[in-house]
Design a protein that fits this description.
10 helices; six-stranded parallel beta sheet; homotetramer; Gfo/Idh/MocA-like_OxRdtase_N (chains A, B, C, D); 396 residues; alpha/beta; globular
Chain lengths: 396, 396, 396, 396
């Protein structure tokens, strides 16, 4: 470990995602052999006290109150962007142009146009060996990585159905406070971009198919919510008095869409997607089911260490096989604990660091690239377009 | 039991549904106190040998080879229609006009126009005390009846989401044979009318809300299938040689649609529906999830004796409560076995007979009426219309 | 159906078990082709009004107020014994000696001595073609029959562990009323014989191994309970006032024992058994798990249509496969509904009739024989003996 | 964080447990506010290269090749013992006598005699403010901590049943290699002490009851296993050739026992325990079910973020409520991620560090104390004694 060349990281933002990324940077080299040794060199944030406290708590060596300073520093090799979506394009493009590798949280941007510029910057930078990746961390859940392996191995046959739900419930209470995630200016969209984007990426990645068209419906159940301080943070647990001043919710509360994959002919797979924060009782139910002609897969992040697999070859004694994805042969898990000792939410971020650092060490493009994330962005845009147009079919 | 006035039943059709209905007519009076005593007076079918064998096996006293004869008989009080959808209108209207009560399998008809005529006939007949009901038997599953009770009691609060899937897999194999269920002429539609209709009825009935508009996608994955004999029967298990003559599949294999309930304003509940026979590994997964502001419900017919209920009032120690619906206080089950002894598929039909005979005995309209079933038919038509029109929103 | 020779049945007792058996006699010939046609000829019970009402409700042609009269009748071919255990020996032996086939509810008797006399009578009668069977109906659950098939096929390899629980909760309330099931004189034992006997039979039958020794603990949590009328019926739901007169509970509330199978060497399989009516929330959790060197099985009657099967050959992608036991190739189910349409509690009794009538029609010994049931009785006795002797190991 | 006084840790052993403990020491202060700041000062191990590599990988500042040196060092405040059980007593007593706090892995020792000496040393040291704790880390699983809270709150009423299983399968293959865990000299016992001890501690801690007597059966299915190198490491995944030299397995493969709690009168709760490494398909199924007169609890470590709770007050609509233990109000989890984002196996060790450091900071006895662990040791000894004595009841 000590002999590896350092990879000096500068992180922008230090809220929920910043904490998860920090843990990943600290932990990855303790369990995996990496070609470069991550160093938590600096963290940037506008609030000087806040960033200083975060640096202490999360283990960063120094702080900056402006992300631009981070990019200017010579002792930073990689910029890790953990801020709201409206800032991604500016930071990422500046970092790439300054020759810094970039890890950017999802969704890549708040618009296709921004995502296109970012992708262009990424592709230009890549020619000089400067690499970039978008943080669709659910790909690094061992069970979903195993799902993709099964598809790659042909164990599902031809794919017919994709059924993807991302269900949360933290907005069910109409008096849960307004947060930046409900402000279109900052977040780009609501459940669609925040959690639906994960479903889109996971569905496309696991199946190896791209969504070619959609028909969509967006809904905002609660139009105004009580304002609580600075609109920063995940929120969701507070319940303010009903006479607090209220802010307008400018994003979707729920997104529903049907999809076709890869060209949209009648021979193709069809999908149903749903993202909401009003599915009372579902806390983080990021679910994916794929039905093929030879096999089926089902996953629910609320039971994240398991993958259900149905193999038609087992008929008539077939049944969904609940695979506890903790065997040394399974993706990632061999580096952790013995069989049967499950992982948690943050391990996806650690694996993301592993994959990113490994790719940088081997000077190859990490996945998902900005171009991959741009495709997701285009699906998000198509969903919004269809929803605004009486659900009419919208090509991606 | 012996002192109750008889209710003399004539059944048309004797395949899968005929067997289920026969069992129900025989069994209902053994476990429930009915105001009228069902008698299995006659069964009608075109094939003389077949109907005779069925009568013996299923317990019918006499046979007819023409359903018209059944209607002409004085010793028949009720006509039970268990034939494909294209025959429903003619039989039901004739029966009602002849003063016979009618139980008609779902979907009510193959078109809205037929369903409207049937509803008109039903309403006219009702003025003379001749009653009719459509056979959406899933309503009689104790767990779904309990779900409705919970909604009625206000335990869910305002409803936000409905999520309804009806997943089967018996057509996954592209060489599974052609059956009447895949022929639009006979069946009206495919997965949409056969199983999706159950989801629509259950969703509307449990929530007490009507679907007001839809955006839909229909798909036929396999366009031609090997012909196997007379196209009668459920099929699905055979696997014919690939050089058998093939028939054209003229119905949908899968139906997907989003919906709004009750008026379609943005304040209303939204729904996602999916019906397919290609969800490999799902055998009869008729699932319904409802999320409200106070509680949520989840049901899967593959575990039909359980209802999952989430009560937000239990927070922070809330969780989906898996209610084993076998308590004497639960709908229907007190008449069967002690707590904990589950029921099976056919009990829904027995309960349907109980409800129908009780309503007739009390001279009141049984539910679901033909008018209720017409509403489902209108949703089916709207789905087909939207699907044919680039998924554009279609009011019901 | 109509051409088969009749099998004229006389049933003794008409409570819970009587209702289940009546349904089975009525229903079996409607779904299965039987070599003999069951006829519900007569039912016997001491209470004249009660037995008359039961006959009407359950479909019996005539009544007797003394079981001895039933045995004397020439028009009865088979005696079906549905009374408490203390009456089994006398009725069964008399019936067998009178040349009547016998179906006797479990446990076979209230003592090994009675069971031995019954077995002797059965073996003597069998020489004259008079057959007998004990009603361990859980064997007829399709999922458990499939479990046995898997063991027979060698899919489990060498068996290491058996884990059997039968958990109910209807006595949790200390004021639930006294019933005949809590009176040792009538019932022989408590949870041990009532439900534990099912676990013992199922474990031995599925594994093909016999229990060779046990170490046991019996417990009675509530020593006295309010008296409610005639002490007949399952009880368990009433909650009498605390000043009602109380009767002494003379049986075990819970039975726990460890076991060795087949000879008791250290190389053999070991088992853990638990039967209780105080497992709050478990309504009819008759569970069986078997671990072998090649595969494992798990079953829970609360989800009775499923069998979980783990095949080590699937490693490293192995997982418990939840088989929905509704395929036509599975035991019994091909005669019922299409794939995916589950069965209920009473189907086990119907299948029991099918197997019994088929064996009688083919003039061969039905299973489980009285000798098989005697082995279970010996295990019950060993459990009681060990429990009375400081849990010391007791050979069977 | 930086202002807290340091707590300088010296760890002995660096295999599976050493890695888990290291992660916990590194991570705890990043997510929790601790009164002392843990420092990974030194790690000791006999193999100089091995310990050096481990120190680099796991983040320890220095190394020692003899644990005695660790104890002699002035810059060490706490000794963390992660070695096999036969070394615990010597190290722990020496450390305590040297004034070092001690965290000792479970089981506390390989015999009651050792455990008694350790407890005496702990109690003596405590008078001087030197504290000690035994590492029953499963107590720190949020779901189990919530279970204990429910019992404390009286939500279960009087406890009737405890049902504890710890099922693994890594020895099912008779050719899995010999390891130190199968050598009585090093490990003290087999499944009993390794995993059964966790069940005993969890059952006693959650219920607040002590086991007062047991009846037990121990079994060794495979008497000899191929030798693989140094007998160090968890093993279990290799499969050596059948002609490798073989070592004798001197511990139990499976342990089964029944128990009474708190005095052993017939009014007390009863328990069933099972620990095995031959339950094919069960990877780390540490399960606990508790049935009381008012409520029941069920937990399975294979789904470690969930606790099932049945509240009889919900009748007749009661059901096991699957609580996703990720709410901020739940034990420990508020310091991690938002609701719905589950934790993994290693979090228990992190919470253990939190509780230990907090207790040391507050100068109070951490739990479980050595005295608590001695009670578990006495249960282990009683189990072995009963098993050696024909399962006869053995008081603890």
């Amino acid at each position: 470990m000590t002999t590896a060349k350092p990879l000096r990281v500068g992180m922008v933002g230090y809220a929920f995602m910043g904490a998860a990324h920090s843990h990943a940077w600290r932990t990855a080299p303790r369990f995996f052999d990496l070609p470069l040794q991550p160093q938590l060199t600096a963290v940037a944030g506008r609030n000087a006290d806040g960033v200083r406290a975060a640096a202490d708590k999360l283990g960063w060596e120094s702080v900056e109150s402006d992300w631009r300073r981070l990019i200017e520093r010579d002792d930073i090799d990689l910029i890790d962007i953990c801020t709201p979506g409206n800032t991604h394009a500016e930071i990422a493009i500046a970092a790439l142009e300054a020759g810094k590798h970039v890890l950017c949280e999802k969704p890549l941007a708040n618009s296709v146009e921004e995502a296109e510029r970012m992708t262009l910057a990424a592709e230009t930078a890549a020619k000089n060996g400067v690499l970039s990746m978008c943080g669709f961390s659910y790909r690094r859940t061992p069970a979903l990585a195993l799902a993709r392996r099964f598809v790659d191995q042909g164990r599902l046959g031809e794919i017919r159905h994709v059924r993807a739900q991302y269900l949360q419930d933290w907005l069910t209470d109409a008096n849960a406070p307004m947060t930046w995630r409900l402000d279109k200016e900052q977040s780009g969209s609501g459940s669609l971009g925040d959690i639906g984007a994960h479903s889109i990426d996971a569905a496309q990645w696991v199946t190896g198919l791209n969504i070619s068209g959609v028909s969509a419906l967006l809904e905002t159940f609660v139009q105004e919510r009580p304002l609580a301080g600075d609109l920063v943070g995940l929120g969701g647990h507070g319940d303010l008095s009903s006479d607090a001043p209220r802010g307008k919710v400018t994003v979707d509360d729920a997104a529903i869409f049907s999809a076709r994959f890869d060209g949209g002919t009648s021979a193709g797979a069809v999908g149903v997607f749903e993202a909401t924060r009003y599915a009372l009782g579902r806390k983080n139910a990021m679910r994916l089911e794929v039905n093929g002609t030879k096999g089926s897969l089902a996953f629910d992040f609320e039971d994240m260490n398991a993958l259900s697999f149905y193999d038609a070859a087992d008929s008539p004694d077939a049944g969904f096989r609940k695979i506890f994805v903790t065997e040394p042969e399974h993706p990632y898990v061999g580096n952790w604990w013995p069989t049967g000792h499950g992982l948690g939410y943050e391990h996806g971020f650690t694996h993301q660091v592993v994959d990113l650092v490994t790719a940088i060490g081997e000077a190859r493009q990490p996945e998902p690239s900005f171009a991959d994330a741009l495709q997701v962005q285009r699906v998000l845009a198509a969903v919004e377009s269809s929803a605004a147009n009486s659900s009419q079919w919208q090509k991606v």
